[in-house]
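User: Can you predict the 3D structure for this chain?
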Amino acid sequence: MSLTAGESMAPSVFLSSENPAYTFQFGKKLGMLLAPGDVVALVGELGAGKTTLTQGIVRGLGVGEEHYIGSPTFTLINEYAGRMPVYHLDFYRIETPSEIVNLGLEEYLHGEGVAVIEWADKVEALLPEDHVMITLQYIDSTVRTLEIEGIGKRYTKLIETVVREPITFEAQR
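Assistant: Here is the predicted structure, written as structure tokens:
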């Protein structure tokens, strides 16, 4: 991934991912830094890499390889046990935020674990004030751009930490 810094050290950075393995490894590095109560909001069109990024985040949170990490499009929420609970939410099929009011969203967003939300733009009004927002953009069959925005002081520092060191890549995931 290559980093393009903005004119100032704003809490938003841009990364270019040349293949899914880069996206996965960035997610894994981010996941290793997350703490209970953290929320990662993902936005992007179909095929932009939200689920690949989520897979990396979940692995970085210590969820073992024996668990398949797929998009919970039909169930809306998958829960995994890692070094803390991991809540993978997918709101692709949600038309309005009111459709998820009875899901106990507050418990996921302010609970003991980490919430990773695909299609977070559909519930943006319900997101906590402080969170990480990652917008993925499809460039071509392998290249994606990621705009990572740390919203709130903790997340600004988290993003600075995650992009400070180069991403190292494993042979396989």
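The chain is about 25% helix and 25% strand. Residues 2-164 form a domain with the Rossmann fold fold (CATH 3.40.50.300).
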